[in-house]
Amino acid sequence: MPPESTTPLSPDELREKYRLEREKRLRPEGNAQYVEPGTVLDDFDADPYVEPGFTRDPVVDEVDVVVIGAGFGGMLAAANLRKAGIDSFRMIDKAGDFGGTWYWNRYPGAACDVESHVYLPMLEETGYMPTEKYVKAPEIFAYCQLLGRHFDLYPTALFQTDVEGLDWDDATSRWTVTTDRADRITSRFVIIAGGVLHKAKLPGIPGIDTFAGHAFHTARWDYAYTGGSPTEPLAGLADKRVGIIGTGATAVQAVPHLARSAKELFVFQRTPAPVGVRGNQPTDPNWFASLPPGWQEERIRNFVAVMAGEEPDVDMVDDGWTRMLYVDTRRKPTSAEDAAELERIDFENMETIRRRVDEVVDDPETAERLKPWYGKLCKRLCFHDEYLQVFNQPNVHLVDTEGMGVERITPDGVVVGGVEYPVDCLVYASGFEVTSDYTHRLGFDPKGRAGVSLSEAWVEGPATLHGVLTRGFPNMLMISTVQGGQNINFLFTITATARHVAWVIDECLRTGVTEVEPTADAQDAWWNTILAGIEQTWRYQLKCTPGYLNNEGGGDMRSARSAAYMGSALAYADELTSWRETGDLAGLETQRAE
Ligand code: NDP
User: Fold this and answer.
1) What's the burial of 336, exposed, middle or buried (CB within 10 Å: 0-12/13-18/19+)?
2) How many CB atoms lie within 10 A of CB 464?
């Protein structure tokens, strides 16, 4: 069936179209439609970026702080510890180096989708000038390594090491961290910076484990098979038929590179991505040199204010993000007229995205299939100047699944609508767990007071103060989105939280506090703050096509408790700052040395 015509629709028609497109995609199994990669790809979790066979002696140590996770969250927390003069800490990460997301995501085309000048932290401190407005992943990974050297973090780091256990001891007020390399490290405090988009997921497509060709997930790109590198053509694909499943923000970046190198590329689409203009450009060194002290904080706050729909007078970053989100159409309308206006703006923003598809894609039928029919905040907006264009190439085939997803995988290929598409290689751009249980994503289950595990303590859902501390788990500080901050520029909230956790630890160490945890009342009050912000976001999200942002279109109170603070990210960061400035550890119970 050819898709519908491109005639602009009335608001009523658009509302109905969005509703129908959402309903097509709703699945009763929700998140259970996904499976863990390890159940399908034997060596999925193997690190393709290190030499195999690394061994070392177990480490037995006692420190003030263990930092679990050496991505931006862990690194910024450690940098703040250093700044506070706390040097007794160890960092642990399963990866072979610093970088977290940017260590694992080395797929071709990977790049920062937020302006580097507001994304990369501490540019004024390191004196680093990003080479482009949106730098590529290898540059971000190198910047992580630079931060590692700048703050002398390498000597503290245990890489290629998986945390297996985290146990609190009431008698000594210490945590013990145990790892898969038989390390045993005791510490007064633990910072868990376990990452947000790090646990990959695969679609549970029937037959997925029968595929006889080569397959991998984008977060473990197999250059040994594809040839090339993040910056070089994938020469190994020149005679290959390649399929990619998924058309989210990752696929949008990877597809142009696959299209350039593969003999044939089949893009299996369930929901089209919204793809606006990127307009990347090199950083002008004169402009960069002219920036006054304090420029980065000012620019970051301005960007975050725009992302929060605060409509500041100046839009410093002035890009696709800020133009699309200058008005937060999720905000609570002040009147019926205001509600209609917010909806009109959202429709118009998405109409711009849909018009661009017609402008770029030659074949009208293909163009029609590439149009997203949902609100602008339903999926992560993408900005790319080569993605839509590849669908004009004769070796690229869009296989639209009409919202139903891939039907079946066979030993030879992928079946959609009863037609088998034979492929030699299958790339899963199927995303990451976001709304699953926190401890599941962490891969270990901390045991707090009386040996109670975090999964037991949170059986009804998480309870925290600021998303950072939780009762029953003294001296354990988390950097995550669970009841914590969130923003399009995730580095903003990570930076704010990393500063906060280091401050709490420093304050405790300076004032002789041996144990710190939130009161039940403080956790309840924080939950009420979270809840107050959820309602409006849900009103919007529950009309959205399914995805990780709306828990695959469903949700209950338990999953709501894992939500992030939905107000402005500036408000979240400012809340942490003013809490610290009061200086009385409000809402925390403390024990001191006798
Ligand atoms: P997503 O979860 O956004 O996308 C997964 C894709 O797989 C979707 O298109 C989904 O379709 C598709 N899919 C799932 N199941 C099936 C199925 N059975 N058949 C066909 N298709 C299926 O993951 P991404 O890795 O693309 O992005 C995750 C997040 O990572 C982004 O939202 C963003 O926050 C971040 N990111 C950031 C970047 C940056 O530059 N900073 C770059 C890339 C990603 P459907 O939409 O229908 O569910």
Assistant:
1) exposed
2) 23
What CATH number has the domain bearing residue 379? Answer: 3.50.50.60
Residue 489 has pLDDT above 60, yes or no: yes
Domain count across the chain: 2
Q: Is residue 146 part of a domain?
A: yes
3-state secondary structure of 507: helix
The domain containing residue 106 runs over which residues? 61-199+434-592
Q: How far apart are the first and last CA of the chain?
A: 77
Task: With respect to residue 252, please indicate whether it lies within any of the assigned structural domains.
Answer: yes
Please tell me whether residues 368 and 473 are part of one structural domain.
no
271: Cβ below 6 Å to ligand 1? Answer: yes
Dist. CA 537–CA 309, nearest whole Å: 13
**Amino acid sitting at position 357:** V
Residue to mutate, 216, 250, 303, ligand 1, most ligand atoms under 8 Å from C-beta: 250
Does the beta carbon of 378 sit less than 6 angstroms from any atom of ligand 1? Answer: no
Helix/strand/coil percent split, the chain, to 5: 40, 20, 45
Q: What is the greatest pairwise CA distance in the chain?
A: 77
pLDDT tens-digit map of 543-582: 999 888 888 887 777 878 888 998 889 999 999 999 999 9
Q: What is the mean pLDDT of residues 337-364?
A: 95
Structure tokens given for 220: 């473990």
Q: Whose C-alpha lies nearest to ligand 1, atom 46? A: 271
With a 6 Å cutoff on the Cβ, whether 37 touches ligand 1 is no
Q: Are 315 and 324 in contact (CB under 8 A)?
A: no
Please write the tens of the pLDDT for every residue from 175-224: 999 999 999 999 999 999 987 788 899 999 999 999 999 999 999 999 99
Q: Is 83 within 8 Å of 60 (Cβ atoms)?
A: no
Q: Which amino acid is at 507?
A: E
Ligand 1 neighbour 370 (Cβ under 6 A): no
The CB of 248 under 6 Å from ligand 1? The reply is yes
